[in-house]
Amino acid sequence: MIRYLAAASIAAFAAPAMLVAAPVPAPELAQVQAHLRAITTMTANFTQIDATGHSRGGVLSLKRPGKIRFQYEKGVPLLIVGDGKALTFIDYKVNQVSRWPIGNSPLGALIDPNRDLSQYGKLIPAPPGRILVEGKDAKHPEFGTITIGFTKAPNAPGGLMLAGWTVIDAQGNRSTVVLSDQQFGMDINDRTFLWRDPRPQNRGR
Q1: How far apart are CA 120 and CA 98, in angstroms?
Q2: pLDDT for the residue 15
Q3: Stretch 140-156: mean pLDDT, rounded?
Q4: Of 12, 129, 7, 130, nearest to 79 (Cα)?
Q5: What is the per-residue pLDDT for 106?
Q6: Strand ranges (DSSP E) for 1-120?
Q7: How far apart are CA 176 and CA 118, in angstroms?
Q8: By C-alpha distance, which of 15, 31, 30 is closest to 153?
Q9: Do 147 and 134 form a contact (C-beta atoms < 8 A)?
Q10: What's the whole-number average pLDDT of the chain?
Q11: Exposed, middle or buried, 152 (CB in 10 Å: 0-12/13-18/19+)?
Q12: For 35-84, what is each residue's pLDDT tens digit?
């Protein structure tokens, strides 16, 4: 269950917020797209909160084109690495590796900002200073409903800061990832996105 929630929450994107009923102007979606296109590299701390309220943390690293890594804190035997087409989930506790397609999802837009976010995401009402984008992947209903949260920050790329995301899966379970200490434009070595294959027949990757 923990492994599935990790997969679902990372494969989707928003810090929870109190919503308001005011209409959201369409230009804000273009601002989100501009923010995503302005990011070349990014690091952030993340805290993942599962449906039971249990939390675990780690570090997110992003480098275009297509590279993303979720490195969990010490003691959590999970690693998630993306190559632009899919996310690879490595569970070192049970020596298992699986891949989930990114497809036309908000995470896909984060990794490849040339994708048109309006084709699979829509704005939903949010408090002042916040932007929320909701998305669903019709081909993967197990991902549930995804909401990405942004805060307005004049000094951040495109004037926005990616705050985190929440996913509600097909069973109604909620998992949230909150980002902090976001930094942009630093050098990230490509070796950051390598991973060790724990399966006996594939060790050495």
Answers
A1: 24
A2: 30
A3: 84
A4: 7
A5: 56
A6: 41-49, 55-63, 67-72, 78-82, 86-91, 96-101
A7: 23
A8: 31
A9: yes
A10: 81
A11: middle
A12: 988 899 999 999 999 888 899 999 999 998 889 999 999 999 999 999 87
Is residue 159 within 8 Å of 30, Cβ to Cβ? no
Contact 14, 132 (CB under 8 A): yes
Per-residue buried b or exposed e for 112-132, using 16+ beta carbons within 10 Å of the residue's own CB: bbebebeebbebeebeeebbb
Domains of the chain, start order:
2-184 (2.50.20.10)
- The number of residues making up the chain comes to 205
Given a cut of 80, whether residue 171 has pLDDT beyond it is: yes
- pLDDT level of residue 129 (50, 70, 90 thresholds): very high
**N-term to C-term CA, the chain:** 27
**CA 187 and chain centroid, separation:** 20
Give the three-class secondary structure for 199.
coil
Tokens of 74: 């010490």
Determine if the peptide bond prior to 127 is cis (ω within 30°): no
C-alpha 198: how far from chain center: 24
pLDDT in tens, 186-204: 999 999 999 999 998 765 5
Contact assessment for residue 20 and residue 126, using Cβ atoms and an 8 Å cutoff: yes
Q: Which pTM does this prediction carry? A: 0.80
